[in-house]
Amino acid sequence: MTRARVLLRAAAAATMLLSAALLPSAVASAEQPFRVPEQVSDLTGALDPSELAEVQSAVDSLYDQQGFRLWVVFVDDFSGQAATTWGDRTATISDFGDRDVLMAVATEARAYTLNVPQALASISDSEISELEQSSIEPALREENWAGAATAAATGLGKASSTSGSGSAGLWVAVGVVFLIVVGAFAFTRLRAKRRREDALEAAEQLDGSDPAAFAALPLDVLDERSRALLVETDEAIRASADELSTAAGELGDAAARPFVDALDGARRALSEAFAVRQRLDDAIPESPDDRRQMLMEIITSCSDADRRLDEKVAEFDEIRNLLIDADARLDALTRAHVEQTARLDPAAATLASLRERYDAAVLTPVAQNVDLAREQLALADNSIDDGRDAAAQPVGHQGPVVAAVRTAESALSRARSLLDAVEHADGDITAARDGLPAAMEDARADIASADRLSEHGGDPLAAARAAVATALDHAQSRGSQDPLGTMNALVAADAELDRALAAAAQSKEQDDHARARLDRDLGSAQAQVRAAGDYIGARSGAVKVQARTRLAEAERHVQAAQQLAATDAPRALQHAAAALSMAAQASHLAQADVAEWEATQRPRHSGGFGSSSSAGGVLTGVLIDSVLRGGFSGGRSYGNRRGGGYGGFGGGPRSFGGSGSSGRIGRSSGGRF
Known about the structure:
Helices cover 70% and strands 4% of the residues. It is built from 19 helices and five strands.
């Protein structure tokens, strides 16, 4: 190789190195090449537990029978790189040896790579190509991820075991692989059907008024559930309309109005749902997102219709039962009316006794109670009579009994409360007068506590304090004239202040705890940021933009935490935690970048970079300009790996190395286990 070609290749390699270090990642969520931790690494959730076990079993069987390892990786995409390039770099970072095969699948980008070392001579190029075309790619096109991986493991094993046995052995291996793929495909279809049935059963238990509960359902399951809900809701409305039509004559227009309104509202909601269904069924196609939104509208509308009817079920049943048991209910009301009427004279006597002992102002809350109770009892008596007249009417004309019974019940309840207040007045006034001084002291103590916690309680605490102060002033000026009224007002205001104080105390406790943690956590964050910065600074030539971005973000969070430390400890603590996390990510990414860089700089048997000091200079960023000017002394060539893919990616050189290379970057033998 001429010196000009050596310099040209060195310059090209340096340019690629500099571009990788300076250009940002094209897709924030893309998966960069990484060190594969396990033989089956599913970073996208493509495999369920049973499929993961199936693939692991196939990988283990391959190693037990043939003595080489298959590493299976599922990612979203290859970060904008060619599938073969991504596979080469991942194999390099993972220190794969001559007996390590990598199968990487980008499920979202729909690309894959099968990375087979050249040293694995028992598998020919034609066998690899046949395996990809007949087994792996058909399964991948059907998104049968587990089937593709197991087909790869089985096919590699067959190719290795039948090598040199002639075309008959090859065809037998191909046939076996085909049968396995077909069986895996059939099994996957059956499992998908069972999953769909389970999803439909689970969907029936979800709350239709909560769209978030349906967000994870597949589109076909959502569609079938919406169809079932339309039928169920339509049947419920028809049944409700029939029953209400029968009962409306008995109830009368006024009593039936709430149920008619509920039924009309349910019908409107169902009509809207059917309109959306019609749009889905017409000849105009919708996008998947639009279709999901329209299906959710159907489910929500049906749920709204059901809710309107369900809200009136208890009330409707109560009215129907009242009509059936009208005579018994009216008899019970008559007995209650007699009982309350018998309390009028004793209550009047009690009130007269209270007037002899207390000022008129003290008795203001109960002074008119006996007269008001007498009026309510008269109203109840008239309503009971009206109810008996309505109950005597023929079936279908008894609707007024409902209003009569409810009016009588309400009047009797108010009369009972009025007379109870008179009977309890003496004890209540005495208790209020005796307890008012202690209540006022409690209020003063709570006001003092509110002043101490004012910076933690905000507006709610300030408003509650002001209300207690007003009630306390009123108790001091009017407590002797109206002990019961002032006591009740003071107790109610103080209860609100107690709730506000509890919230303020909790806020103070949280703030104190945050301040206690802040010094420790902020110090840890600063140390982590400093360590990450030192590491990146010492290896700047190899560290890419992602690590630098995380470090800059960590430094920003540290500054924010320092600024907020004195005024908002909880927020400062959040920034310190974020800084710690970002600095750790920066360190991890930087270490990965350096490991990748070092792997590409290791010398080969047939030549390499001129000196370790030159490589160290590039690592620290000092000799980048020298690289660009062709300052390397050795040569480098491609060779000794095979690969394939689909979606526009094909074969070609798969790794660096001279004529004596084993086929793995940076390793002449051995591997991982």
